[in-house]
Specification:
InterPro entries: CHAP_dom, Papain-like_cys_pep_sf, Peptidoglycan-bd-like, PGBD-like_sf, PGBDSf. This protein is α+β, with helices and mostly antiparallel strands. The protein contains 9 helices and 6 strands; from the N terminus they run H-H-H-H-H-H-E-E-E-E-E-E-H-H-H. Helix content is 32%, strand content 13%. Helix 2 crosses helix 4.
Length: 256
């Protein structure tokens, strides 16, 4: 293994045991990874400080290892995987030092990636050993099977490229599919959670631009702007708030 991959793993290993703090109400507090990302990417710390931090940690470790231009700087795992693929650095093959992308739904679809980590060992039968951040709110080592990962970013110079494993073909427009159940509460600026991420992913599939952070589960100005555009096209009240009608329109042809 080359020196650059060794440095990346060393940077990740140095943070093993870190656990995200919570306040007296159990609310997650900002992490050093989120605060670093705010400064590095010049984005709002109110949104990113306490946000999901697995990919921000990988990006921070890459900077500490001196390989940031090769690994990238991301908070959104789907955008990170797309970036590797666009650069010809996406591969289905595990390798020590690679950035590994997971989908807990086991869809094998880049657009449904949930999580990311660093490969530290490759074992038989597709089993890998990893260091991951934001796994049960901590930085920890994990053992993962082949069904859990979608692919790998082979970022180092001289690494072979590759193509992703075959994946199901989605509807051409991302529309006219049955929507998931409405979450029962309005999505507006400041909303966050899995229901926000579900809506954002569908908007991205339909071609709406949510900015570099993509489906991060945080409903900010870019998400609100996309919602207003959808509402205009679907002839709904244009307020940038995702209620039941806008939720349904997100999965229907009327919102094209």
């Amino acid at each position: 293994m080359d020196a650059a991959r060794t440095r990346l793993i060393k940077a990740a290993r140095a943070d093993l045991g870190y656990r995200q703090p919570v306040d007296s109400r159990g609310q997650k507090l900002p992490t050093p990874y989120g605060e670093w990302y705010c400064r590095a990417a010049r984005v709002s710390c109110s949104a990113y400080g306490p946000a999901a931090w697995c990919d921000m940690a990988v990006s921070k470790w890459a900077e500490e290892a001196g390989i940031a231009p090769l690994v990238g700087r991301f908070a959104y795992t789907v955008a990170h995987a797309r970036w590797f693929k666009a650069r010809g650095r996406w591969s289905p093959a595990p390798a020590v030092g690679a950035v590994v992308f997971f989908d807990w739904g086991r869809s094998n679809d880049i657009e449904k990636i949930d999580h990311v980590g660093i490969v530290t060992d490759v074992r038989g039968g597709g089993v890998i050993r990893t260091i991951e951040a934001n796994t049960r709110r901590e930085v920890a080592e994990r053992t993962r099977g082949a069904a859990e990962y979608v692919g790998f970013g082979h970022w180092w110079r001289g690494a072979p490229g590759g193509s992703a494993k075959p994946k199901p073909k989605p509807p051409a427009s991302g529309a006219d599919t049955r929507p998931p159940a409405y979450p029962g509460r309005l999505i507006r600026q400041g909303s966050r959670g899995d229901h926000v991420r579900t809506w954002q992913r569908q908007m991205i599939r339909r071609g709406y631009n949510l900015g570099p952070t993509g489906a991060d589960g945080i409903y900010g100005p870019r998400s609100a702007a996309a919602a207003r555009e959808l509402q205009r096209r679907a002839r709904l009240v244009v307020d940038g708030i995702v209620g039941p009608d806008t939720w349904r329109a997100t999965w229907s042809k009327g919102g094209k």
